[in-house]
């Protein structure tokens, strides 16, 4: 034992041994897993970002540039500044299209909202065959827009259409000309638009109705609330987030309506149903004025943005 102690002291007297050189730093397993998860996440969202950049962001930026140029497909784009925007001030056709777009939206939005909400309330009951009626209500939305236009133009025929025949049977001496009359063509398009789209928004509102707790209705009945009181004080407040979403989507779709009017009236008679989307299409693809069409598209874009921002602020003010 003494010998061992002497040896320890002698080794200690010679001083500390030199430290071993540091080896390669090993990456912790946690950081490697974190990097792997990050790469996997980017691999999922990168295609979406690429699609957004190529199909949305780049075209929108190009649109803003083209709105400042005079350009057609047969020549180069010549920068002209704000001339396209000042041209809109004196363009009566643009004013007509803007007015018709506001007219269509102002009537179509509340009419579709009321019709879809009423349909959702009706089909939210436990009835036999309710799934069938929900499918029937949604079916017009997935039907070909061309087929819808052909059928409704036949129904609206002034001479042979069953609608005017029914009105004549009821005693109406001078039934409207519908799509052949400048005075009644826009109401006819709005009727078809409401009929076609109310099934889609009915499904959205129906999903919102099914999230309303049944206990709230029971409590309202105990307090003596009738059907209208339960609807006003229970259904509408609980349905508010869904109503806000439906209103925003419905407003944007109404402002940029195009396909229904194109195949049903083609903007006529005259310019009675000409809307901004069709005006853009006509100026760009029919008259080859892509610079001016881009400027009109920019104005429509800002109209949609402004209305949407107003709806968001209005909804936030109501929540406050």
TrEMBL record:
Biased composition (Basic and acidic residues): 1-10
Annotated membrane topology: Multi-pass membrane protein
The entry's keywords: Cell membrane, Membrane, Transmembrane, Transmembrane helix, Transport
Xref: InterPro entries: ABC_transporter_permease, MetI-like, MetI-like_sf
Chain positions covered by the region annotation Disordered: 1-29
Residue intervals passing through the bilayer: 39-66, 102-123, 135-156, 290-314
Location in the cell: Cell membrane
Coiled coil location: none
Pfam name, any one: BPD_transp_1
Main location group: membrane
Domain ABC transmembrane type-1 per the UniProt entry, residue ranges: 98-311
Annotated family: Belongs to the binding-protein-dependent transport system permease family.
Identification of the protein by name: Sugar ABC transporter permease
Species this protein is from: Isoptericola haloaureus
């Amino acid at each position: 034992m003494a010998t061992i102690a002497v040896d320890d002291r002698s080794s200690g007297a010679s001083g500390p041994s030199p430290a071993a050189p540091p080896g390669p730093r090993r990456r912790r397993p946690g950081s490697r897993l974190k990097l792997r998860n990050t790469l996997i996440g980017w691999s999922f969202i990168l295609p979406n970002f690429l699609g957004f950049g190529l199909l949305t962001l780049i075209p929108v930026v190009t649109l803003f540039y083209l709105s400042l140029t005079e350009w057609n497909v047969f020549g180069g784009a010549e920068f002209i500044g704000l001339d396209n925007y000042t041209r809109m001030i004196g363009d009566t056709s643009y004013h007509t299209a803007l007015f018709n777009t506001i007219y269509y939206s102002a009537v179509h939005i509340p009419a579709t909202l009321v019709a879809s909400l009423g349909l959702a309330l009706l089909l939210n009951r436990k009835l036999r065959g309710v799934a069938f009626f929900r499918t029937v209500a949604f079916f017009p939305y997935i039907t070909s827009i061309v087929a819808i236009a052909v059928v409704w133009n036949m129904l609206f025929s002034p001479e042979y259409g069953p609608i005017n025949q029914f009105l004549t049977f009821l005693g109406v001496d001078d039934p409207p000309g519908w799509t052949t009359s400048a005075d009644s063509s826009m109401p006819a398009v709005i009727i078809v638009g409401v009929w076609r789209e109310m099934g889609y928004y009915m499904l959205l509102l129906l999903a919102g109705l099914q999230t309303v707790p049944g206990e709230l209705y029971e409590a309202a009945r105990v307090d003596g609330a009738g059907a209208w009181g339960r609807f006003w004080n229970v259904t509408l407040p609980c349905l508010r987030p869904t109503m806000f979403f439906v209103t925003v989507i419905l407003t944007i779709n109404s402002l940029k309506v195009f396909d229904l009017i194109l195949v049903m009236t083609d903007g006529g008679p005259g310019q009675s149903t000409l809307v901004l989307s069709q005006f853009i299409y006509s100026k760009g693809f029919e008259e080859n004025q892509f610079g001016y069409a881009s400027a009109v598209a920019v104005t429509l874009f800002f109209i949609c943005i402004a209305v949407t921002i107003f709806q968001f602020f209005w909804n936030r003010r109501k929540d406050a």
